[in-house]
Specification:
The protein has helices at about 15-20, 40-50, 60, 80-95, and strands spanning about 5, 25-30, 50-55, 70, 105. The chain is α/β, with parallel strands linked by helices. It has one domain: 3-Layer(aba) Sandwich (Rossmann fold), CATH 3.40.50.
């Protein structure tokens, strides 16, 4: 699965870089009108579209079992503006290593 739904705590540029630099199908919640949406709606949208949710909200998505969840903690990413470039690389590497990920939680190596 190389399709992603990026949650709102990450910069919208993450989705653009995933598309433009790494050729992955990625959207940010802001791009599809899900800013400030309930986490269950974000998960339902990802499920319906076959996307992996990229979030750091472990507790909020803990009950979700039938969607791929890619948990990345912001504290493990480069600070400031470098985050928008660092996260797409981590996700592209994760997608390459997990072309058909299981449903449930994933913790990509943030190096």
């Amino acid at each position: 699965m190389s399709t992603f739904l990026i949650d709102e705590m990450f910069p919208p540029a993450t989705a653009r870089l995933l598309r433009d630099t790494y050729s992955h199908d990625a959207v940010h919640v802001f791009e599809i009108g899900l800013q400030a949406a309930e986490d269950s709606l974000v998960a339902a949208t990802a499920r319906a579209e076959g996307r992996a949710v990229v979030t750091e909200n472990v507790a909020d998505f803990a009950a979700e079992r039938d969607v791929a969840l890619v948990f990345v903690l912001k504290r493990n990413l480069p600070p400031g503006g470098a985050q928008a470039a660092g996260l797409p690389k981590i996700l592209a590497d994760w997608a390459q290593a997990n072309p058909v990920p299981y449903l449930g939680p994933h913790w990509p190596d943030a190096g």
